[in-house]
Amino acid sequence: MPKVKTNSSAKKRFKVTATGKITHQKSFRRHILTKKSKKRKRGMRIDGQVHKSNMDFVKRLLRLK
Q1: Closest by alpha carbon to 50, among 60, 39, 38, 40?
Q2: At residue 36, does pLDDT exceed 90?
Q3: Is the confidence at residue 46, as pLDDT, over 90?
Q4: In the chain, at which end, N or C, are there fewer CB atoms within 10 A of the end residue's CB?
Q5: How far is C-alpha 50 from the geometric centre of its chain's CA atoms?
């Protein structure tokens, strides 16, 4: 039997916490930061959580389900 592979792009983008939640980095933080407020940039440092509507899809990519 061949092994089932994890989606390579998904394993780079998502991280599973100890409690089983899946986190991701916020978008719009790469460039053109001068026009964004400090408050907005500070909020983008914090990892976001995958929404429950996308949870099944992301788990299937990571082979958790």
Answers
A1: 60
A2: yes
A3: yes
A4: N
A5: 7
**d(C-alpha 20, C-alpha 23), whole Å:** 10
In terms of Cβ atoms closer than 10 Å to its own Cβ (0-12, 13-18, 19+), residue 27 is: exposed
Secondary structure (DSSP) of 20-47: S-EEE--SS-SS--TTS-HHHHHHHHSP
Structure tokens given for 13: 């983008």
Give the residue from 51, 60, 65 showing the smallest Cα distance to 21: 51
Which residues, other chains included, contact 56 with Cβ-Cβ below 8 Å and sequence gap of 6+? Answer: 65
Average pLDDT in the 30-38 region?
A: 96
